[in-house]
Automatic annotation (TrEMBL):
Record HAMAP family: Pept_tRNA_hydro_bact
UniProt family annotation: Belongs to the PTH family.
Task performed by this protein: Catalyzes the release of premature peptidyl moieties from peptidyl-tRNA molecules trapped in stalled 50S ribosomal subunits, and thus maintains levels of free tRNAs and 50S ribosomes. Hydrolyzes ribosome-free peptidyl-tRNAs (with 1 or more amino acids incorporated), which drop off the ribosome during protein synthesis, or as a result of ribosome stalling.
Residues with site note (Discriminates between blocked and unblocked aminoacyl-tRNA): N9
Residues that hold tRNA according to the record: Y14, Y64, N66, N112
InterPro entries to which the protein is assigned, alphabetical: Pept_tRNA_hydro (IPR001328), Pept_tRNA_hydro_CS (IPR018171), Pept_tRNA_hydro_sf (IPR036416)
The keyword RNA-binding belongs to this UniProt entry's keyword annotation: yes
GO molecular function: peptidyl-tRNA hydrolase activity; tRNA binding
Name listed for the protein in its UniProt record: Peptidyl-tRNA hydrolase
């Protein structure tokens, strides 16, 4: 069994914000397979499904970004998942929009959702899909930028990156993560 976790903030207020790209990738996977997040437990909404014989959990924590680990940890404990069974999808200011980077380990890079997961799991060793959102072109507070919406001019690049990320997650369900990294890092 594998678990794909998309980080974001719950509620319509945050729906299309840069900080919610993890939720957007989970939504794309749900739409592709006509699934819904039909389970509400572990401070999150999730689906437990199967693709090509591989069981997969798609999770959107409902704890707000900074407490994401409080949703993931109990779910992992309940389903006996290891950190290697998990991929976390989150926004990354240090990558330009359109850039997707898969990694097997790393620090939190100032991302409080990832920090929460590292704290809860007690390890930095888990798969990640870093989704580039770039930095603001004009001076503004980081929080205002990540909680802002994408410009209309970036919509096609955003959609392309969401599709690419969802493709990578589907590939991971039947291929080793290092191979997926080689094939999908762009």
């Amino acid at each position: 069994m594998k678990c794909i976790v998309g980080l974001g903030n719950p509620g319509n207020k945050y729906r299309d914000t840069r900080h919610n790209v993890g939720f957007m990738v989970i939504d794309e996977l749900l739409n592709r397979h006509n699934w819904t997040l039909n389970k509400n437990k572990f401070k999150g909404h999730f689906a437990l499904e199967s693709i090509g014989g591989e069981k997969v959990i798609l999770l959107q924590p409902q704890t707000y970004m900074n407490l994401s680990g409080e949703s993931l940890r109990p779910l992992m404990d309940f389903y006996n998942l290891t950190p290697e069974d998990v991929t976390v999808i989150y926004d990354d200011l240090d990558l330009p929009l359109g850039k997707v980077r898969l990694r097997q380990t790393g620090g939190h890079g100032g991302h409080n959702g990832v920090r929460s997961i590292i704290d809860q799991l007690g390890t930095k060793q888990f798969n990640r899909l870093r989704f580039g959102i770039g930095r603001p072109e004009t001076p503004m507070a980081v929080i205002d930028y990540v909680l802002g919406k994408f410009e209309k001019s970036n919509q096609s690049l955003l959609e392309e990156s969401i599709h690419h990320s969802a493709d990578a997650m589907e590939a991971w369900l039947d291929q080793p993560f290092p191979k997926v990294m080689n094939d999908y890092n762009k």
